[in-house]
């Protein structure tokens, strides 16, 4: 597995890095902990050594014959700093090398992930924002901090993302680096840096009464995979989540919605000025004309008759708004969960939908209970990416992150200033 350097800086959230270390070790990685002197005031070296199974590397003078300030960074497959204080971000952005950790950051030629933690005022200060922008422009992944309880009674943005979220970001960074090695560096790790993307995920619900609704089997995992891969590739991500019970991806701005109308309003607002919009949510096509305010009771043997009406066509509405000049010029990607029938097979239905909707790309996958069914309630997916130019790309069954990377590759090629 990978060789990971875990940098820990002097914030009270340093204790959470112990859980991150445990998760990285359980995933099979070798982890070398490089704490700052301030970090050791919060968590002592014996704790890091017991959890990592390795000596802590704390200064440039110990074992000087091994030249640790160069060797550790060179040998790493990934460097993650959690928590990353405002001071560390500033020193990294300006290339300072006044301790072992900042030396490692300068010598590392692998993916680097920062998980910031600090008070809200520090995170929002123009100096910190400029330092984060500088690091991201260099291809470094800087997660946005979580929003919540800080030290004392304070609350706001600045809380360290949860260890499982940071571990997932590390996993994606390593997977992306491995893919780039296989493809001989065909794409830079942060090729979406500077882009703002909107992703929808999950399945909408149209309520019949307070306890019943029309819905679908979407878990939101494909939308989550699109968000996490975009974050790993450097994008700024707005994630519109329709009834998804998954931990939010670290760094994404999550907007929860319930119905198709809710999703339609949220997406239209967020799409203005976005570079790419990916509609991965399974949006209900119909809703009850009337929603009962009290639970519908059984009445004798007769079942109630429920009249339905069509919901908003969010994908077609986005394309129309773009054509009207209301959104700018985002690349628009749709998803189509299809089944074959007596009239046509899955791909024929998909091609017709692409022509009807007018989006730039449409990802078609077969759903249902048949042997070729993919997508819903699964960690894997497969499909065919249809493009307006008539090209079609088959994506073999595999992790949903693999399909997500194909989507971002194809969308990136359609952005005029990024193509090629």
Provide structural commentary.
Keywords: Decarboxylase, Flavoprotein, FMN, Ligase, Lyase, Magnesium, Metal-binding, Multifunctional enzyme. One of its GO terms (molecular function) is phosphopantothenate--cysteine ligase activity. In the N-terminal section; belongs to the HFCD (homo-oligomeric flavin containing Cys decarboxylase) superfamily. With 420 residues, the chain is an alpha/beta fold. The chain has two domains: 180 residues, Flavin prenyltransferase-like (Rossmann fold, 3-Layer(aba) Sandwich); 218 residues, CoaB-like (Rossmann fold), CATH 3.40.50. Helices cover 33% and strands 23% of the residues. It has 13 helices and 19 strands. It has an eight-stranded mixed beta sheet, with helices on both faces. It has a five-stranded parallel beta sheet with strand order 2-1-3-4-5, with helices on both faces. A hairpin with a 5-residue loop joins strand 9 and strand 10. Helix 3 crosses helix 5 and helix 10 packs parallel to helix 11. The longest helix is centred in the middle third of the chain and has 20 residues. The radius of gyration is 24 Å and the shape is elongated.
List the helices and strands and how they pair.
Blueprint: E1 3-8, H1 16-26, E2 30-35, H2 45-52, H3 68-75, E3 78-84, H4 86-93, H5 100-107, E4 112-116, H6 120-124, H7 126-137, E5 141-142, E6 146-149, E7 155-159, H8 163-182, E8 196-202, E9 206-207, E10 213-214, H9 221-232, E11 236-242, E12 253-257, H10 260-271, E13 276-279, E14 286-288, E15 308-310, H11 314-323, E16 331-338, H12 346-357, E17 361-366, E18 380-387, E19 392-399, H13 400-413
Helix pairs in contact: 1-2, 1-8, 3-5, 4-7, 8-9, 9-13, 10-11
